[in-house]
Amino acid sequence: MKKNSIAKDALILFVITIIAGFALGAVHEITLEPIAAAEAEAQQEAYQTVFPDASEFVDLPGFSTEDAAEVLAEAGYADDSIESCVQAVDESGNLLGYVINATDPNSYGGDVTLSLGVTLDGTVNGYSITEINDTAGLGMKAKEESFSSQYAGKQVEEFVVTKTGATAENEIDAISGATISSNAVTNAVNAGLVYYRYLLDLTGGELLSE
Question: Given CA atoms 82, 86, 87, 90 in this order, what sign does their dihedral have?
């Protein structure tokens, strides 16, 4: 009887495990679409933040993360990556510039990913952070305008972080107590600028379509 009881309990536990597994799988499938929709909406908001004059954002045809990695490595940004890129287009269908989604893995809390808007003449419109896990009140200040506004409206080859007060066009005042995060954000921006220059050479500033 005891053996039968153990076998019965084991069978019940097995059935419960199977049912729970199916239930979790069903919940996962149900939540996938809303999560994807929320992420897509957040990404579009980031695009609009860095390119408010654009009426449409068109995927860059033929984009490859591998090709982008080669471009960054040659420029000395091997740690960074370009996740994707879209073309910012006005109501008349004219190309205004690019929104480049770049990641640097060396922020204090790990990866920092941002959407960088750059016009055709190389002016940085600004950035919008889409992923960061830094300390509140320190690295998270990279999302605040007091820090991000330092990049906007600038035409530079690359930015550098300083802790002694910015005196040059390309210098960025580090967030107090968060120099590591300041550097990570700046590296992501610089990686985006490297890719922007590559795109300009590649496309000649023309809108690309499939």
Answer: negative
Query: CA 200, 204, 209, 210: dihedral to nearest 10 degrees?
Result: -90
pLDDT at 41: 80
With 0.85 as the threshold, say if the pTM is over it.
no
Q: 141-148 long-range contacts, Cβ below 8 Å, gap at least 24? A: 141/175, 141/178, 142/112, 142/175, 142/178, 142/181, 142/182, 142/185, 147/173, 147/175, 147/182, 147/185
Q: For residues 88 and 57, what is the distance between their CA atoms, to the nearest angstrom?
A: 5
Q: What is the dihedral of CA 131, 134, 137, 139, to 10 degrees?
A: -80
H helix runs in 51-144, sequence order: 65-74
Cα torsion through 131, 181, 84, 99, rounded to 10: 100
- Tell me: the pLDDT tens digits for 86-122? 999 999 999 999 999 999 999 999 999 999 999 999 9
Give 2-52 pLDDT, tens digit per residue.
Answer: 556 666 666 777 777 777 666 666 665 666 466 556 667 879 999 999 999
Q: What is the rounded distance in angstroms from the CA atom of residue 36 to the CA atom of residue 43? A: 11
